[in-house]
Amino acid sequence: MWSFLGRFFRGIWWLVDALRRVVVTFVFVLVLALVLAFVLYPGPSVPDGAALVLRPAGTLVERVRVNDPLGIIRSGGAPVAQTSLPDLLEAVRAAREDKRIKALVIETDLLAPGGLSKLAELREAVLDFKSGGKPVYARGERFLQGQYFLASIADEVHLAPDGFVLLPGLARNVSYFKGALDALGVKVHVFRVGEYKSFSEPFTRTDMSDEDRESSRVLLDELWQGMRERVAGTRKLAPGALDRYVEDYAGLLQATGGDAARAARDAGLVDALSQRDEWRELLKARVGEGGDGKDYRRIDADDYLAAVRAARPHENARVAVLVAQGAIVDGAADDDSVGGDSLAAQIRAAREDEAVKAVVLRIDSPGGSAWASEVIRRELELTRRAGKPVVASMSSVAASGGYWVAAGADEIWARPETLTGSIGVFAMFPELTEPLARLGVTTDRVATGPLAGTLDPRRPLEPALAKAMQLGVEHSYRRFVEIVASARRKDLAEVDAVARGRVWTGAAALRLGLVDKLGGVEDAVTAAAKRARLEHYETVWPTGEINLRNLLLRRLMSVVGPVGITSESPLARLVGGLQAQAADLLRWNDPQHLYGHCLCDAP
């Protein structure tokens, strides 16, 4: 029996040891493959007479989230949800003067809904490309509104025979939770300054306030008018043609027997209907065949940009473009937020870098912590005092805390479609005494002062604390207005008249003196370089730290190609939006519980 047990356990140990060696060998081979892929994989080359292909996947962003590649592999291929707008702009600008690039091809099927200003900025870069005499071709299996807005800039727009062009216009839908909170017995105490500061209204109302409805109507009308005029202009449509398509879509479908693709073609929105193989053959005829004869001569934007950057000479002087993307939080940041301390450290590093001669802060944020916003603004102010120009460039949203940050710059640029302003401050405090009482949970206390332990959702809000919080909000609002007045060289009353929490488009903000000029990030970089008196310079985009493991894995994945690119259903977008809102609330960590946050999503 002892001999049998000995053989049994020796066999178990042999299996465990063999498995260990297999795992170690596998990991070693994997690491070796990653290193070889990173070091030995040749850079892309640009074929002569090629078409540059833009096929943005997911949402256009200022800075792509650094996903964990191992997580992607474990999940079997998570959706690739983001495309860098700066990368696309750089590729299109470079291609305009590149004699190797013959045409531009845009395919929008993977593009997700996102900020109108980003699409408009990319659209203008494509328009500049066209001005160089090179053609632009676009196709979609179907076109949602944002996808068509981008594609409509092309010289020739194709649609799948079974596709459609959907142009419903712009809308703003807000969920209100007061009824649910009342049913649960939850009280939400709100302290704010500004009748247009609507961020807290979903927790205290069941519908839009008159002020929020008025402001939203003005914003949407202005944005829609600009979008409609651009599409009609590039498609050479009569002023009322696009309006009829939007307002009488059902009637147009009825006239074509329900054929949505033919209705779009008859309305002049697309030039032709083509299958995928027909599209490919058309591009072969227009651009030329590739080396294998199976496809047209082409290069994707990522490969083209890598080739261009590798051949570009480095300059000693630099303009650093830092990105503030997401809600502003106190302390460090994650991939979906702007950390006050994290961004301040990046600004400080740029200020102390002798090669960096100017700083551009690209803002795509609805705001957040008032404390963190001031930490960032102060670092920008110190950078200006050190003699380095600072220019703020507003993307889709730069409101409330986002505008607070921008006030630290020498000069502010915005897109006409940017949502900005929302100069206001609020605080919220939930009271959970009633729902806890229903569960039989009570709270008692011992304290050394009248306000000790009172900021606790298990207890009713003390009137003295409520008064203190309102006074704090009013003081922070005055501080906000003073900062803006000083930065914009205006009287306090003049700033207060356009503040009160109201949101403005970039075009309106220019008229009101809240921004200096209209333009995109490249315009802001040029302005910063001019202020620094630079003729030759390099634009750099400092990013957060990426560990070696992720760097190697991402390079390997770039070799094998993207995985798991999917489109979301409306239900998935709804659930994802609610999850994102909940995650944002959990990030709220202002030490004084004061927030400059805007309830404004980029349409």
From TrEMBL:
<keyword id="KW-1133">Transmembrane helix</keyword>
<dbReference type="InterPro" id="IPR047272">
    <property type="entry name" value="S49_SppA_C"/>
</dbReference>
<dbReference type="Pfam" id="PF01343">
    <property type="entry name" value="Peptidase_S49"/>
</dbReference>
<comment type="similarity">
    <text>Belongs to the peptidase S49 family.</text>
</comment>
<keyword id="KW-0720">Serine protease</keyword>
<dbReference type="InterPro" id="IPR047217">
    <property type="entry name" value="S49_SppA_67K_type_N"/>
</dbReference>
<feature type="domain" description="Peptidase S49">
    <location>
        <begin position="384"/>
        <end position="534"/>
    </location>
</feature>
<keyword id="KW-0378">Hydrolase</keyword>
<dbReference type="InterPro" id="IPR004634">
    <property type="entry name" value="Pept_S49_pIV"/>
</dbReference>
<feature type="transmembrane region" description="Helical">
    <location>
        <begin position="21"/>
        <end position="41"/>
    </location>
</feature>
<dbReference type="InterPro" id="IPR004635">
    <property type="entry name" value="Pept_S49_SppA"/>
</dbReference>
<keyword id="KW-0472">Membrane</keyword>
<dbReference type="InterPro" id="IPR029045">
    <property type="entry name" value="ClpP/crotonase-like_dom_sf"/>
</dbReference>
<protein>
    <submittedName>
        <fullName>Signal peptide peptidase SppA</fullName>
    </submittedName>
</protein>
<keyword id="KW-0645">Protease</keyword>
<keyword id="KW-0812">Transmembrane</keyword>
<dbReference type="InterPro" id="IPR002142">
    <property type="entry name" value="Peptidase_S49"/>
</dbReference>
<feature type="domain" description="Peptidase S49">
    <location>
        <begin position="129"/>
        <end position="284"/>
    </location>
</feature>
